[in-house]
Amino acid sequence: MPLSPNPYAALKEASQYVRLFRGKTFVVKVGGEVIAEPKIRKALCEQIALLWSFSIKVVVVHGGGAELDAVCEAMQIPVEKVAGRRVTSPEVLDAAKMVFAGQVHMDLLAELQAAGVPAVGLTGLDAGLVKAHRRPPVSVVPDGATEAQLVDYGLVGDIDAIDPHVLSHLLDGNFLPVVAPLSGGEDGAIYNTNADTIAASLAAALGAEKLFFLLSVPGLLKDVARSSSLIPHATLEELAGFEAKGIISGGMRPKLTAVKAALHGGVPSAHLVSGLAPDALLAEIFTNEGSGTMIVPGIVPGTIPSTTPSIGANATAVAG
Fold this sequence. Notes:
The chain is α/β, with parallel strands linked by helices. It contains 11 helices and 16 strands. It has a single domain, classed as Carbamate kinase. A hairpin with a 2-residue loop joins β3 (81-82) and β4.
């Protein structure tokens, strides 16, 4: 009878990461396409619950684009997106309030509670968490185009300031904050603000160890039609090269803009991970091999880049 593999090997490997990350802050951005399916949402919340049980401080930021599209369609509200970002009319904003602070938010909170996590729901308006102003018309090169056009995104908020005190109080009290992507202006206005942007800003403001984007794809792909073309490791310089080659398009554009903002803001690493594959988030955090794409500011001079970061590379900042 063949010998079975050591049943404790994986536990020993994971324990190294548990010790390194205990007490650290992770920001996890969850796309609406990931949490729309109840079974997938349940599995994801169980992964997040495990992180919380290891005394890792987790802040969840969620989107809900697919659900918002469906509500807009049902209400016969036009849906317009340019370069992966939504144009928000007053009617779209009303629908966003219903979806982001309602259905999607409540479903996620309920599932986290069921997984044993004391989750607390907020929006960017709570305690002035995310303060913003209306985005002025901006010059954008749409996907597939070569020339820029002026785009008015409507009632979309560009972030002016983050006040993380309410999050810090919740985290210190062992609660898990869940943030919906709405922001507030000084004049009382409410804005739809990209959830990727909010997640990156919160990660920088909290001094997070890692920022995760959970996607419907395995990570950053060289060819969006082939999941086998996963890029496991990249630097900001390499990202610029991918953009120049047109590899990055659609909804991946705002995500990688957010990644760059977070890394420039002092977050040591950002990770693009499947939210659909079983336990992909745990594999990215607690194994040497990872499961998605890890992005760091740069390579330390004198080191050899690796597509499979060692525990040291996976756990600490890689300086640019």
